[in-house]
Amino acid sequence: MLEYLFFLSSGLFLGWSLGANDASNIFGTAVGTKMLRFTTAAIIASIFLVLGAVLSGQNTAETLNTLGEVNTLAAAFTVSLSSALAVLMMLKSGISVSISQAIVGGIIGWNVYNHKPTDTETLTNICATWIFCPIISGVIAVGLYICVKKLLHHSKVHILWQDMAVRVGMILTTALGGFALGANNMANVVGVFIDSNVLSPLKLGNVYTLSSTQVLFLLGAIAACVGIFTYSQKAIKTVGKNVLSFSPTVAWIVILSQSLVLILFSSENLENFLISMNLPPLPAVPVSSTQAVIGAIVGIGLVKGGKGIKWSLILRVVSGWVATPVIAFILSFISLFFMENVFKQTIFIP
Q1: Is 19 in contact with 225 (CB distance < 8 Å)?
Q2: Which of 71, 144, 254, 348 could form a disulfide with 114 if both were Cys (CB 3.0 to 4.6 A apart)?
Q3: Helix crossing, 38-56 with 159-190: angle to 10°?
């Protein structure tokens, strides 16, 4: 057990990185527009992140296991640590990046090092979400923006009541965003440890029992909550203030749009329903909340004429999306060499 917990530490580090990085996407716009205090938003997001991870986090883990089934504890430690270091490097430069892309780069590094073929169909599906995720988020945001704008234009509600409604909406969408992040992205944090999991089920009184996998996801979620409170404010400055100057109402629309996108890509029931209707499915796969929120911001910015969008910063963020999986791949490949040849650990079981 102690050995497992030691190796799991890299997954918890990646969980911390998830909270430090992706909290900006959950409530960065709310804090940036001063509609919610950081502490209030962080508490709400943390509670619902834990719920999302424990109740629905396993739905997207299968996709990552299909991409590359990291089947030893030492390899899981190495892949997870490499991904976390790649994210931390981007965070140090003030760029909010994608945990999803980092873990994919790390897993492919493991595949290449062990001369194991990468499932091209799964990789194609995952890479396709990197394109469609911001597009879908942008479309949803534009639709919501147009509807809300017309509603406010024809509404005779006093501006103080509008302000109160936006604040309540911010609280609700922060909760929804936290749940969506836990449900969709926690597989990135601890998914590679599922095959080697030795944790015991946990009884919560006589009401509910967490499976061993749910306990694993709970630990990852707690690490993410620590990341939210200790390091997320730096990334919030990028997403919440610098990309686009917008009103509190638009900030609420951005949060809601990215939350809905994460839920869409977390639902196995939706995927099966679309397949039964002979429609292109949205796979249950971890997607980037960073890409979703940037897509929403750009979509609304374009509808408003595109003048308020800081394209230089958008280009910088996009460059981080490209660099992150590459850095994670390189770190994973090199670290696996040292883990196998210097520390004499088994990193692959045929």
Answers
A1: yes
A2: 348
A3: 50
Query: In terms of Cα–Cα distance, which of 300, 221, 222, 220 is closest to 29?
Result: 300
pTM: 0.89
Q: How far apart are CA 12 and CA 224, in angstroms?
A: 8
Do residues 69 and 199 make contact, with C-beta atoms less than 8 angstroms apart? no
Q: How many domains does the chain have?
A: 1
Q: What is the three-class DSSP state of 313?
A: helix
The position carrying tokens 């001063």 is 34
pLDDT tens figures, 317-347: 888 888 999 999 999 999 999 999 999 999 9
Q: Is residue 306 in some structural domain?
A: yes
Q: What is the dihedral of CA 61, 63, 68, 72, to 10 degrees?
A: 20
DSSP of 75-87: HHHHHHHHHHHHH
- The token pair that represents 315 in the structure block: 């280009």
* Torsion on CA atoms 256, 234, 317, 80, rounded to nearest 10: -90
Query: Is 346 a domain residue?
Result: no
Cβ–Cβ under 8 Å, residues 225 and 112: no
Angstrom distance (rounded) from CA 320 to CA 322 = 5
Range of the domain at 21: 2-341
pLDDT tens profile 161-201: 888 988 999 999 999 999 999 999 999 999 999 988 989 99
DSSP code, position 200: P
Within a domain: 348: no
Say if 119 falls within a structural domain: yes
The residues, any chain, with a CB within 8 Å of residue 252's CB and separated by 6 or more, are 29, 30, 35, 166, 169, 170, 173
In angstroms, rounded to a whole number, what is the distance separating the alpha carbons of residues 328 and 47?
Answer: 29
CB neighbours (10 Å) of residue 14? 31
Q: Which of 84, 28, 69, 47 is nearest to 232 (CA)?
A: 28
- CA 155 vs. chain centroid, Å, equals 36
CA 254 to each of CA 6, 169, 336: distance values in angstroms, whole numbers, following the listed order: 38, 12, 39
The length of the chain in residues reads: 350
